Amino acid sequence: MHEFGIFGIAGIMGMAFLFFFSIITVAAFVFWLWALIDILKNEFTGSNKLIWLLAVVSIPFLGMVLYWFIGREQKIRSDDGKV
After folding, report:
1. Number of domains within the chain
2. Residue 79 falls within a domain, yes or no?
3. Which residue from 10, 13, 28, 57 puts its CA 20 to 30 A from 49's CA?
């Protein structure tokens, strides 16, 4: 038997790899869900709301990154300065 049991070092590395990418996947899903909720809760000018919804749903990772950097700036602000 190996020092690391029946899986050996490759098994430990595989489990670490799986754990790391599981965390990344969950974080990406949470960020995607946040983008959808933020788009639905806020008002945009013209048809920007529909465009952002389609972008985030049809091209999830790129759409949510673009929304984070560009789309949030396009929200209509209320009179008190809050979005």
Report:
1. 1
2. no
3. 28
* Helix, strand, coil percentages for the chain (3-state, nearest 5): 70, 5, 25
Report d(CA 23, CA 16) in Å as an integer. 11
Nearest to 35 by CA among 27, 47, 46: 27
In a domain, 61, yes or no: yes
Residue 58 lies in a domain: yes
Locate 63 and state its tokens.
Answer: 């759409």
pTM: 0.72
Q: Give tens-digit pLDDT for 32-54.
A: 999 999 999 999 988 999 999 99
Angle between helices 60-69 and 8-41 (to 10 degrees): 50
Domain membership of residue 63 as a residue range: 8-74
